[in-house]
Amino acid sequence: MKNATRSMRLELHVPLRSVISRPVFTSRNVAISSPVISHAESVDISKLVRRYQTVRHQTEALCEPLCAEDQVIQSMPDASPARWHRAHTTWFFETFILKKFRPDYRPVNPAFEVLFNSYYNSVGEQFPRHQRGLLSRPTVEDVGHYRRAVDEQMLELLEQNGDDAELRSLLEVGLNHEQQHQELILTDIKHMLSCNPLHPVYREDAAKSATGEPPPQHWVSCEGGIVEIGASPEGFRFDNELPRHRLLLEPFQLSSRLVTSSEYLEFMRDGGYERPEFWLSLGWNVCQQEGWRAPLYWHSTGDGWSQFTLSGLRPIAPHEPVCHVSFFEADAFARWAGYRLPLEGEWETAVAALVGDCPATRSGNFVESETFHPQPAKRDSQFHLQQTYGDVWEWTASPYVAYPGYVTPPGAIGEYNGKFMCNQYVLRGGSCVTPGSHIRGTYRNFFPPEARWQFSGIRLAK
Q1: CA 53, 56, 58: angle at the middle one, nearest 5?
Q2: Rounded Cα distance, 65 and 349, in Å
Q3: Structural domain contains residue 38
Q4: Which pTM was predicted?
Q5: Whole-angstrom Cα distance, residue 232 to residue 369?
Q6: Which of 86, 168, 196, 306 is the most exposed place for a label (fewest CB within 10 A)?
């Protein structure tokens, strides 16, 4: 891999300083602390209602292939049962919107205030996260009733008060919050099903076998300089994307596509998991303690390697992006190949200049594609940087910390992102289980460096 990679160096030089003088990002929705639609704009209540119904329906559609038993299992402390995700997202609307805007509102069940509170200490007590799978009640049917009861009240509230700017702002947060949990439903379901030796299938038609060899890797050169990253003040963005600020970047290069499974296999065959010189000290310790010898969900068989997917167990497809690797594995692979992982500022700046952030350029393999699995890069792509959106979340070398000038939003909603800015790394771009309408160029995902159950992969930089 190292020699092969280094031989593929068609370099495209992009002077980024020529593009940062204009706005790079166009956001459309709302910030946590600002209204969805300004007072000067007319409010289309029917549009708000349709968006609410669409997002809520998508959650139920993702759970439709599951039986009741599937929805109550918690396979590890970092995952949650699908039933809990369905209830927690409902709790969010009940807690932060209905209780605030309906003085006479009576909770569906007061006990749910504790059972389905995730980590909001300012709201109240929480049931222990690692014990969510121990609850047989409320049943899956009870949670369905809970969702329908809250939906009925929410739709009535939107019809009556949909022109309230604060309501619309909180609604947009709640809908984006539910889209995040839609992705978690699929990642947690995959982990839960993978623990079963029967290799159960979530969807028979998911994870279709990909065909076609990806284009050769080449390097896209970026001039660097003083650039701006972060979200603009207009439109929806989470608080951790703020404020937009200047950053000095040295000249850098990004790989034109993601690392494939066949390229990662070369790392494994060259003793990548047995050679400490490629690993960070903490990563090497975790690798040895956990017995890592391949990405999560990979299985060695007499005929080679197979991987568990949401459509069951199937042979490794060599041209697909490698997936379900930790930051430690991604970093070790990059060192073995002679390169590194990109900084999040490099990723955001290059993608803004070369791909953009409008719906057309943000197209990719998202949850709407219903493959639920990463696909190979296309030879006929119009972009010098491929697979920037969708397929797999891309690990960066950047720790998850606050941007200069970041201010935690007031109240309980301020617990959404800021308090997790410790011991985590940033991922960019979304994955094959991310809703396409949810992702954007400034979006900052974050996970601990040992996390592997997310759809996470590798793009090289130098």
Answers
A1: 105
A2: 39
A3: no
A4: 0.90
A5: 29
A6: 196
User: Is residue 134 located within the same domain as residue 83?
Assistant: yes
User: Which residues contact residue 59 at a Cβ distance below 8 angstroms, ignoring those fewer than 6 apart?
Assistant: 85, 86, 89, 178, 181, 182, 185
Same domain, 244 and 327: yes
Q: Tell me the two tokens of residue 393.
A: 């979340």
- pLDDT-derived band of residue 10, with 50, 70 and 90 as boundaries? very low
**79 in the same domain as 22:** no
| One domain, residues 262 and 145 | no
How confident is the model at residue 362, as a pLDDT? 86
* Res. 18: pLDDT tops 80: no
pLDDT score at 42: 63
**282, 323 in Cβ contact below 8 A?**
no
Domain membership of residue 60 as a residue range: 45-162
The three-class DSSP label of residue 164 is coil
Q: How far apart are CA 461 and CA 253, in angstroms?
A: 6
Instruction: List, for residues 208-238, the tens digit of each pLDDT value.
Output: 666 678 889 999 999 999 999 999 888 889 9
Residues in a beta bridge with 229: 245
Nearest to 33 by CA among 417, 419, 362, 426: 417
Are 22 and 57 part of one and the same domain?
A: no
How many whole angstroms separate alpha carbon 138 and alpha carbon 128? 16
Mean pLDDT for the chain?
89
The tally of domains found in the chain comes to 2
Q: Is 172 in a helix, a strand, or coil? A: helix
